[in-house]
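Example 411, ligand 5-hydroxymethyl-3,4-dihydroxypiperidine.
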Amino acid sequence: MTEFPKGFLWGASTSPHQTEGNNVNSDWWAREGLIPGMDLSGDADDSYHRFGEDMRLLANAGLNAYRFGIEWARIEPRPGQFSLAELSHYRRMIQSAFDLGVTPVVTLHHFSSPRWFAEQGGWSAPDAVDRFTKFAAAAAEILHDVPWVITINEPNMLAMMTMMEDAFRSGQVKEWQTPTIQEEGIADAPVMALPTPSTEYGAPLAEAHHAAREILRSRTDARIGWSVANQAFLASPGGEAKLLEVRHDWEDFYLDATSGDDFVGVQSYSSQQVDANGIVPHPPHPDNTLVGTAFRPDALGIAIRHTWERTRLPILVTENGIATSDDERRVSYTREALRHLSNAIGEGADVRGYLHWSLLDNYEWGHWAPTFGLVAVDRTTFARAPKPSLTWLGDVARANGKPVAGGERSI
Ligand code: IFM
């Protein structure tokens, strides 16, 4: 086990649509109302108004970094009309982090887009890159002193969603898939693998990322990167060649697009097997999480190693966590994941920080049941209830990881 570097960032992440509430001008808000079986995001965690309390909880626990997003649908409610009031709102968030001694890590796009953007063809429209670049230029005004900016969250998942949306619109698929929700350990059917995104859908995202990077570089001091949803693929016997193919379309295309970036975000939750036919649907297992994935804290090490080998860029773990109602399990998972992270550092990977997903229980893209948070949120009073895992992670952070990487005491 290797010690964590000096100045390592220890924090937690959230996204706007999942926590703010009433993101009424976004494509996700529109979608929630149309698709049967989807929970509504509604007031979400009301973090739009309570972000100060959220950040104080994080800082008081001992964490020193907070990843949050700015919501394009609020900042540009109509094409070309930018809201100065909303930009000021997000500037207040950035300032609140600084005032608490917390490093802000800001995401420009976390799955949700303005409704008008989606109605005009979304990421498949010919002017999508230009639209996003204009938004990035407006956002740059409030980001001048933010040290870490993520242009697009999980572009590979976003490409998959865009592909599904196109198939849904054209009638090729009849149902919009929402994540599978399962009771822990009681899954009775394998969780089907998500469809592999065609890189045709990834290409405009890569272009948008590069264009936004240039704008942000010229107007801010931020390190610029994007954050990839790592699948930690492993080959079953006979699946070695297929793994390379699947991993190219799911991950490597997006990792290669980081060429010229300042860092890359690693987001990792579980691992998946690939055999000669492709991704193997994950079977029912008593250890499965609330979203039906395998309990695989080692996925973080696999994801970091592959990202480091492919990009050689500084890495920020921008998401890692578990959907569970058992907070002790969250601590066990995270402790183990951090051990794998520390081993990867020991093997040479340049990892600069760890941001847990998520600070708060939040809206999991269609469902409220899967709880990823270090803090529970009452859905009617919005009262925050920190879980023991928050205290635990804060203690690890105060000791710069010694409790998990080896040291005088263990937690
Ligand atoms: O909640 C999501 C997040 O928005 C993107 N990464 C994965 C998380 C858990 O599914």
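Summary: The pocket of 5-hydroxymethyl-3,4-dihydroxypiperidine is lined by residues 15, 18, 154, 267, 319, 357, 364, 372 (CB under 6 Å).
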